[in-house]
Specification:
The chain has a 6-stranded antiparallel beta sheet, with helices on both faces. Helices cover 45% and strands 19% of the residues. It has a domain of 55 residues.
């Protein structure tokens, strides 16, 4: 009897609690992506054809909508650790993440797939909805809520990462021609007639029809609607307590045609920049507050990073061991 009581007690103490059991279920789907492998994130608007009708967007291209997508992409790039480049066209954003720039580089959120995709979708949705209400609140009473989904996957190397952006830009150009031809023809001929006239035509034939029927040259549209918008880190001169300094911030620019040799060279310089000799020996990092200089292995891991950055801010390299402010590379 005494032995049975002891065994019963052991069974009772080893039985998992309710919280432990729930955590076990959670861990089953807590997938982690492979570290030090390039990651592609694609963020898409959910049911944006309905949103476009509700907002009565200018067709075929709406500059206000495009600016909101560019701001959302720029903000996202500044919030995601390891972001290298972002690209936006239509209602989608693409982001490249690298976690192999140095031996000390650690994955964002430990490469947990659910955490990364949910945070990325939340950031884009939050920024876009904020701008949506600022831009349209005076014109439309019952504004819809815009939502974005996010998918993240690995690509084997940076060559395939570049090929991904070539693919997305090719899609942008194709959709741009189709949208311009359809909506401009619809204004003249009606929607049903425009659909029939465009059926079976390739992209060159659609451009010819657009010129013949509407006297519109597709090449005269803004480049942002033909090739999309790229978000890259660019040098900016900023004011500091000790005078002016050079800082890298996220900014928008119109990319060249990425499928060309010049375009491939352009994007490769961004996703895999050459490291100068001084950086190879060991970079110096400066505190944004006390201006103390540190080496990479002396920096602390930054805490609460999403709450400490503003839209467009560059992601810091670490945290100052003395004052706790953010530190950025000097070179």
């Amino acid at each position: 009897m005494f032995k049975n009581a002891i065994l019963k007690g052991i069974r009772m103490t080893t039985r998992p609690s309710l919280g432990q059991r729930m955590k076990t279920y959670e861990r089953v789907s807590n997938f982690r992506l492979t570290p030090r492998i390039p990651l592609i994130c694609r963020i898409d608007g959910v049911a944006f054809h309905t949103l476009a009708k509700k907002l009565k967007l200018i067709r075929p291209f709406d500059s206000t909508f495009a600016d909101m997508m560019s701001l959302a992409a720029r903000t996202l790039a500044g919030k995601v650790q390891g972001a290298v480049i972002a690209y936006t066209q239509s209602d989608e954003i693409s982001l490249l993440i690298r976690t192999d720039q140095s031996e000390q580089t650690t994955p964002w959120f430990d490469n947990r797939l659910q955490k990364m995709s949910s945070v990325i979708a939340s950031i884009v949705s939050g920024v876009f909805n904020r701008e949506l209400h600022l831009s349209y609140s005076c014109e439309i009473g019952d504004l819809p809520i815009a939502a974005f989904d996010c998918r993240i996957y690995e690509v084997p190397d940076l060559t395939e990462a570049v090929n991904y952006f070539i693919w997305r830009q090719n899609d942008c150009t194709k959709n741009s021609i189709s949208s311009a031809a359809y909506f401009e023809l619809a204004k003249v001929k009606g929607r049903k007639t425009a659909q029939k006239m465009l059926h079976g035509l390739n992209q060159n034939e659609r451009q010819e029809l657009l010129w013949k029927e509407c006297h519109i040259n597709w090449n005269n549209y803004s480049d942002m609607f033909k090739r999309g918008v790229m978000i890259t880190r660019q040098e900016r001169i900023v004011e500091t307590p000790n005078g002016t300094a050079s800082r890298k911030t996220w900014a928008t620019e119109i990319p060249p045609r990425l499928s060309s040799e010049m375009g491939k060279a352009w994007i490769f310089r961004i996703v895999d920049p050459p490291v100068d000799q001084e950086e190879q020996v060991g970079g110096i990092y400066e505190c944004a507050d006390c201006l103390q200089e540190w080496k990479a292995d002396e920096l602390n891991e930054p805490k609460d990073i999403l709450d400490r950055l503003l839209p467009g801010d560059i992601f810091p390299d670490g945290e100052c061991p003395d004052c706790g402010a953010l530190c950025f590379g000097k070179h």
